[in-house]
Amino acid sequence: MKKISFEGFMKGVFMLCATTSILAIILICYFIFSGGVPFIMEYGLKEFLLGTSWRPSNTPPAFGILPMIFGSLVMTLVAVVLGVPIGVLTATYLAKFCDKRLYKILKPCINLMAGIPSIVYGFFALVVIVPLMKDVFGGTGMNIITASILLAIMILPTIIGLSESSIKSVPNSYYEGSIGLGASHERAVMTVVLPAAKSGIISSIILGVGRAIGETMAVILVAGNQPRIPNSLTKGVRTLTTNIVLEMAYAADAHREALIATAVVLFVFILLINAIFLIVKRRTLN
Amino acid sequence: MKTKSRIMRLLIKASAFITFAALFFIIAYIIINGMPNLKPSLFALEYTTTNVSMFPSIINTILLVLLTLIIATPIGVFTGFYLVEYAKRGNKLVEVIRITTETLSGIPSIVYGLFGMLFFVYRLEFSYSLLAGTLTAAIMVLPVIIRSTEEALMAVDDSLREASLGLGAGKLRTIFRVVLPVAMPGILSGIILSIGRIVGETAALMYTLGTATKMINGFFSSGRTLSLHMYVLSSEGLFVKEAYATGVILLLIVLLINGLSTYLSNKLTKGRLD
Question: What is the ipTM of this complex?
Answer without folding.
Answer: 0.91
